[in-house]
Amino acid sequence: MIIRVVLLSCAIAAPALAHVTPPVVLASDRDAITTLLPGARRHFVHEVRLTEEERQAVQKESGWRPEEDFYRFYIGRDEQLHDLGAVAFLTEYTIHGAVRVAVGLAPDGRIKGALVVELSEETYPWVKTAIDGGLLRSFAGRDAHEPFPRAGARSSMSAFYADIIAALVRRAALVYEAGVMKRQRN
Amino acid sequence: MNGIQLSRLPLSGRIFCTLFLLGIGCGALAAFAQASTAVGVSPAAVQASLARDLPMTGMHHGEPSGEKEIDLGEISSEARMTIRTPLLIQTSHTHLFGQTLIAGLIGLIFLFTSVRERTKAAIVALPFVGSLLDIGGMWATRFVSPSLATLVIVGGTVFALGYVLIAALSIRDLWFRKEAA
After folding, report:
1. Is B79 in contact with A98 (Cβ distance < 8 A)?
2. How many domains does chain B have?
3. Which residues of B touch A26 (CB under 8 A)?
4. Contact between A19 and A94 (Cβ < 8 Å)
5. Interface predicted TM-score of the whole assembly (ipTM), two decimals
6. Is there a contact between B130 and B162 (Cβ–Cβ < 8 Å)?
7. Nearest by Cα to B152 from B85, B92, B86
8. What are φ and ψ of residue B14, in 5° steps?
């Protein structure tokens, strides 16, 4: 009797437990900032709260609406306080777990580099395949308005996550342009 | 309970219950190791992963921007997992189902021990209460007060205490208790 009930309960429990996918952290925030802002002597936190108009402009440009209350950029400067670039961290939550990327941006808004800093155990092999295929290197030198590289002949899941990472990188560039660059010009 | 007692189970039943409890125990140890490495098992670590991200610049509500010089030492050098609301929802749904089912299954075995009814009622409730405190504490840390991160630690401890008591008393009945005729 007991065994029958326990066996039945195990059968019910298995699918629920199978959903747990532990996170994998690939780099600390400090390591990502140091890597993406080489040569910076002084570091600043610059936080921006986008206006409704700025949010709409980003949405019109990309189809994505920035919903966060504020966005944080880590700015690197030299001893004379010249901007050397900025780093932003953005996250996308997928059904297979979160993907968090650090994006390095030049003062003119062009992408200097990107790192995947956090993902889930389940997504790791798909994302690794994309990274090994040169995905992160392919962003360098682009700005938010240039077409981003489409995922090549990888598995469909790897291509799916490559597109998510590309979208996050582009979002960082769009928010930087709307919240920092355009405001400096005005 | 209802005439069924763990001490009267045939050998196959005893092995089944023992290995099930052992397996859950190993799983709990692995989960503890996972929690320690991904988040940390101190209230401060839980708070750092779960509490709402507040502006570092002191930018007030409605202000368009803020800037502040920082020392890189202020940024965490540890690979730290951040749990934002969507991940909290995902974690809650998997853990509430998983932990409640585990609490139910080990509790089910425990119901057939010879422990006194009041003690049994208290012990069987521990893993359920621990799960609710654990997951509820995560939400409270994020949306009520970061100081409630302690609840997550208390919840995990209560769950572990419940498991240890249930496993120890069940194994005592399964293997060491002589059934009075």
Report:
1. no
2. 1
3. 79
4. no
5. 0.75
6. yes
7. B92
8. -65, -45
